[in-house]
Design goal:
It is elongated and about 110 Å long. The chain contains 17 helices and twelve strands. The relative contact order is 0.09. Helix 7 runs parallel beside helix 8. The chain folds into three domains: 4-66; 91-292, 3-Layer(aba) Sandwich (Rossmann fold), CATH 3.40.50; 308-379, Winged helix-like DNA-binding domain superfamily/Winged helix DNA-binding domain (Arc Repressor Mutant, subunit A). The strands form two sheets. A nine-stranded mixed β-sheet has the order 1-2-6-5-4-3-7-8-9, with helices on both faces. A three-stranded antiparallel β-sheet has the order 10-12-11. By secondary structure, the chain is of the alpha/beta class. The longest helix has 16 residues, at 130-145.
C-alpha cells in the first residue's frame, strides 16, 4: 500500500507533469516521487534530458501545486487517488513503462483493478453515422451481457453509444477522461458521465478541475489501450484519435479489432486500413469475446439457412439437380445428367415426389413450381 508521503508527492506531480511525459516518468522511476518533488522545490539540479526552459516551467507549476487541496476537493466529489502499488492499481498499466500514469483519479465505488481484468475498449468517431452509433451500442450491450466491462472515452458519437449500450444492459462501463473527473466533458454528456460514475467508474490522470486539451485527448488514449484486453474501433477516418488507441494497443500486444463499414464512407476508411494490417474483423460481441476471452468463449458458427434440399442424401440431390427447370424430362435423360442408372433414377424420382420436389407428367418428370424456384435460386447463387 502506498504511504501518505508517496501519495501526496504523486498528487503534486499530477498537477505539474503532463500525462505520458516519458522524460519525467523516467526521472520519477530513478529518484522516486518524493525526491522528484524535493528537486522541484529547489533541492537539486534538473533531471537529465530536460531543457532549462522546460525545467523552469515545471518548477513554476510546482509552486502553485496544492496536494492537500486537491485531495480535499477529490474527497468532496467522491473521488479517490489510486497509485502504483495500491491494491486497486491495474498492473497492466505498467506495460506503458515510463509513460505510465503517475496515478489515477477514480470516481465510482467499484474496484478498478478487478474491472480492468475483463475489459474491452470500444472507440470510434465522434461524428459517427447512425450505423456507427447502432453498432457501438449493440457491441456495448452484448459485451456487458457477457460479463465484460466496456471502456471508452466518454465522448460524443461512438464512445457515448458504447457506454449507453452497456448501461442499458445493466452492465459495467468505464469512462477515461482527458480532464479532471469532477468536471464532466463534453458538457453535453454531464448526465451520462454522472450515470457512469453511479453504475460504473470514471477515471483520469488529471487532478480535480483540470481542463482538457488536444494533446491530453491523444495521450488519454494510451490508458484506454493499456487498461483493456483489446480495442474495437467502430468508424474512424484516417485522422482519428480512435486509431491512436488501436495503434497503442498493437504496440502493447493487445488485440485490435475493427467493425467494417461501407467502402465509400470516409468514416470507415481508417477502420479498413487497420483491417488491412493486423486488426481482426468483428461484427458482434460474440466475435469480440471469442478473440479476447478465455478458452471456450466461442462465437456461434455462422451459416445461411438450412433448406429442405440440403437434407437430401447425395444421390437424391444429384437427380434433383439433373432435372431441367421448365420442362418435363425423360428418365434416361435424367439418369445421364445425374451420372447414375435408370433404375436408380426412377427410385430417386419417386422419393423426391413424396417429398414434394418433383411431379410426373406422362412419361416425363418435372420440378414442382416451388422446387423450380428454389433450384434456380441455388444455381444462381442467391
Amino acid at each position: 500500500m502506498t504511504d501518505d508521503g508517496e501519495r501526496r508527492a504523486r498528487v503534486t506531480l499530477s498537477r505539474v507533469v503532463e500525462p505520458g511525459d516519458e522524460v519525467c516518468g523516467r526521472w520519477v522511476r530513478e529518484v522516486g516521487a518524493r525526491e522528484a518533488v524535493r528537486w522541484l522545490s529547489g533541492g537539486e539540479g534538473q533531471p537529465r534530458g530536460m531543457t532549462d526552459s522546460r525545467w523552469a516551467g515545471l518548477r513554476a507549476r510546482a509552486e502553485r501545486a496544492d496536494p492537500e487541496g486537491d485531495l480535499g476537493r477529490a474527497r468532496d466529489a467522491g473521488v479517490r487517488f489510486v497509485c502504483p502499488g495500491d491494491p486497486e492499481w491495474p498492473a497492466q498499466l505498467d506495460d506503458l513503462g515510463d509513460g505510465r500514469p503517475l496515478g489515477l483519479w477514480v470516481r465510482g465505488l467499484s474496484s478498478l483493478r478487478i474491472w480492468a481484468l475483463r475489459s474491452v475498449a470500444v472507440v470510434g468517431a465522434r461524428a459517427c453515422t447512425e450505423y456507427g452509433a447502432h453498432m457501438a451500442a449493440t457491441l456495448g450491450a452484448g459485451l456487458a451481457e457477457r460479463g465484460w466491462v466496456v471502456v471508452s472515452g466518454g465522448a460524443y458519437g461512438v464512445d457515448g453509444a458504447a457506454h449507453r449500450g452497456a448501461l442499458g444492459a445493466g452492465g459495467a462501463t468505464v469512462a477515461v477522461l482527458a480532464c479532471g473527473v469532477d468536471r464532466p466533458y463534453p458538457r453535453g454528456h454531464t448526465q451520462l458521465i454522472s450515470r457512469i460514475a453511479e453504475q460504473g467508474l470514471v477515471i483520469g490522470e488529471l487532478p480535480p478541475g483540470a481542463h482538457p486539451t488536444p494533446s491530453r485527448f491523444i495521450l488519454r488514449n494510451r490508458v484506454i489501450a493499456a487498461l483493456t484486453r483489446g480495442t474495437v474501433v467502430v468508424e474512424a477516418a484516417y485522422r482519428s484519435g480512435a486509431l491512436v488507441t488501436a495503434r497503442a494497443a498493437q504496440r502493447l500486444g493487445r488485440f485490435t479489432m475493427g467493425v467494417p463499414g461501407p467502402a465509400t464512407s470516409s468514416l470507415s476508411a481508417g477502420v479498413h486500413e487497420l483491417l488491412r494490417g493486423e486488426a481482426v474483423l468483428v461484427t458482434d460481441a460474440a466475435e469480440v469475446a471469442e478473440l479476447v476471452g478465455d478458452m471456450g468463449e466461442l462465437a456461434p458458427e455462422r451459416r445461411g439457412p438450412v433448406l429442405p434440399r440440403d437434407l437430401l442424401p447425395p444421390g437424391a440431390r444429384r437427380v434433383l439437380a439433373a432435372l431441367p427447370a421448365r420442362r418435363p424430362s425423360a428418365v434416361d435423360e435424367i439418369a445421364r445428367g445425374a451420372a447414375t442408372t435408370t433404375d436408380d433414377a426412377v427410385g430417386r424420382l419417386y422419393e423426391l415426389r413424396a417429398l414434394g420436389f418433383v411431379e410426373r407428367h406422362g412419361d416425363g418428370w418435372k420440378l414442382t413450381r416451388q422446387a423450380s424456384t428454389s433450384v434456380r435460386d441455388d444455381r444462381e447463387g442467391r
